[in-house]
Task: inverse folding
C-alpha cells in the first residue's frame, strides 16, 4: 500500500486527485482533455474498470460503466486526509473490480478545536479554484462542511468547465467507544466536449450530477472486538448533448441515471495473541435508467473472512476468502494468501497469491447493437490470478527502498 499523506497533499502543487495519484509508483492516470475532462486511474497496467475506487472505505464505481471518473469526485481536495493506493488484486476482501488495485480516498475528521480554511487561486485560461472548509468537535457531537468551486475558460473553443462541490457530515458519540455518523456529498459540473483537433465538436456539452449519502455506526464492543456498519446510496446523473455542428458526434441528447443502495457490516476480532480476524457481509442493489437500453436492475451480496496469523514474531501470514453472488452473472469465490517475513537490518520480504474478478457492467450486458458494438447478456466476469514478490529495506530514518515483481493472468477479458 502506498499512502499519500495530508502533508503531501497540502504541499503538493497538484490541483486534482488524479494528479496526486499519478505520482504513485505503478499508477497511471489518463486525462482525456482540458480541466474537468474524463480522468481515469490505472494500476499496474490494469484498465480503469479493473480499479476499485473507495471514499472512506465504501465503493463508488458506477454500475453502468464499471469505473469512476476522478474529475467527477464529490470531495473537495482540501477535505482529503490521505489517499491509500493498494497495488495488486484485492477481490478477496473488496469484491468486484479490484483486479489491478484499490484507491481509497479518506476524508478529514473533525477536530477538538474549530478549524476553518479558505483558499482561492487564479491561473491561465481564466481558471479559478475557490474553497471553504470548516470542521469542529466541541464535545460528543461533531460536524463539518465544505464548499468548492472550479471554473475554466479552456484553451479551445467549447473547452470551458464549471464545477461545484458541497459536502457535510455530522456525528454523535453514544458512548466512550461508540459513534454514529452521517454524511452527504454532492457535485454538479458542466463541461464542453470539443472532440479531437482533427474533427472538432463546437457545441457538444456534458452535465454531471453526483450524490453520495452515508450513515455509519462504529463500536468498540470489547478491547478485541470492533463493529462497523456502513449504509450508503449513490446517485449519478449524466447528460450528453451532441449539438448540431459536430463532425463526429450526432443524434439526440442521451441521459443516463445510475443508483446504488447498500450496506456493509464488518467485524474485527483479535483471537488470542496470534490471530486478527476480519469478516463481514455486503449487500447492494443497482438500478440504471439509460436512454440507450432503458431500465435495468441487479442485486448482489457477499460474505468474506480474513485471518492475519502471527506464525512467528518475525513471520505473519494472511488468509482470506470471499464469496460474491449476483442476480445476473455467476457466483465468484476469491481466495488470497500472503506472507510477510521481517528480516534483520530492517528488511521485509513479502509474497502473495490471490484471485480477483471484474464484473460485466450494464453497458457490457445491454448496450443496443450498432455498427461498432453490441451488449451481450451472457457475459461472464473477467477473472484473474495475481502473484507478487517484494522486498523492502529501510536505509535510514529518511529513506526506504522497495522493489516488487508481479504477474497477473486474466481470462474472459471483455472487449467493448
Result:
Amino acid at each position: 500500500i502506498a499512502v499519500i499523506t495530508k502533508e503531501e497533499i497540502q504541499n503538493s502543487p497538484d490541483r486534482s486527485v488524479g494528479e496526486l495519484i499519478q505520482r504513485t509508483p505503478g499508477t497511471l492516470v489518463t486525462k482525456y482533455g482540458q480541466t474537468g475532462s474524463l480522468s481515469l486511474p490505472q494500476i499496474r497496467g490494469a484498465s480503469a474498470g479493473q480499479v476499485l475506487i473507495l471514499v472512506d472505505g465504501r465503493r463508488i464505481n458506477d454500475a453502468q460503466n464499471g469505473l469512476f471518473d476522478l474529475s467527477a469526485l464529490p470531495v473537495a481536495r482540501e477535505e482529503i486526509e490521505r489517499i491509500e493506493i493498494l497495488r495488486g488484486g484485492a477481490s478477496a476482501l473488496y469484491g468486484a473490480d479490484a483486479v489491478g488495485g484499490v484507491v481509497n480516498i479518506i476524508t478529514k475528521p473533525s477536530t477538538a478545536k474549530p478549524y476553518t480554511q479558505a483558499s482561492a487561486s487564479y491561473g491561465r485560461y481564466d481558471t479559478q479554484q475557490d474553497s471553504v472548509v470548516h470542521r469542529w468537535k466541541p464535545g460528543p457531537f461533531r460536524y463539518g462542511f465544505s464548499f468548492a468551486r472550479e471554473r475554466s475558460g479552456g484553451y479551445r473553443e467549447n473547452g470551458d468547465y464549471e464545477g461545484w462541490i458541497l459536502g457535510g457530515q455530522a456525528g454523535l458519540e453514544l458512548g466512550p467507544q461508540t459513534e454514529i455518523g452521517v454524511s452527504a456529498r454532492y457535485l454538479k459540473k458542466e463541461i464542453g466536449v470539443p472532440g479531437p483537433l482533427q474533427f472538432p465538436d463546437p457545441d457538444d456539452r456534458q452535465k454531471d450530477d453526483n450524490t453520495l449519502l452515508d450513515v455509519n455506526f462504529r463500536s468498540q464492543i470489547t478491547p478485541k472486538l470492533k463493529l462497523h456498519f456502513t449504509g450508503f446510496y449513490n446517485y449519478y446523473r449524466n447528460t450528453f448533448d451532441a449539438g448540431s455542428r459536430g463532425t463526429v458526434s450526432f443524434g439526440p441528447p442521451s441521459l443516463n441515471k445510475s443508483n446504488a443502495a447498500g450496506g456493509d457490516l464488518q467485524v474485527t476480532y483479535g483471537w488470542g495473541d496470534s490471530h486478527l480476524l476480519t469478516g463481514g457481509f455486503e449487500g447492494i442493489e443497482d438500478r440504471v435508467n439509460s436512454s440507450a437500453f432503458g431500465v435495468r436492475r441487479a442485486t448482489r451480496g457477499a460474505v468474506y473472512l480474513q485471518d492475519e496469523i502471527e506464525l512467528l514474531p518475525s513471520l505473519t501470514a494472511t488468509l482470506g476468502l470471499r464469496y460474491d453472488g449476483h442476480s445476473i452473472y455467476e457466483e465468484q469465490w476469491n481466495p488470497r494468501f500472503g506472507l510477510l517475513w521481517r528480516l534483520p537490518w530492517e528488511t521485509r520480504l513479502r509474497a502473495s497469491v490471490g484471485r480477483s474478478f471484474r464484473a460485466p457492467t450494464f453497458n457490457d450486458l445491454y448496450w443496443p447493437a450498432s455498427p461498432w458494438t453490441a451488449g451481450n447478456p451472457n457475459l461472464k466476469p473477467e477473472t484473474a490470478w495475481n502473484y507478487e514478490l517484494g522486498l523492502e529495506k529501510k536505509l535510514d530514518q529518511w529513506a526506504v527502498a522497495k522493489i516488487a515483481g508481479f504477474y497477473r493472468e486474466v481470462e474472459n477479458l471483455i472487449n467493448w
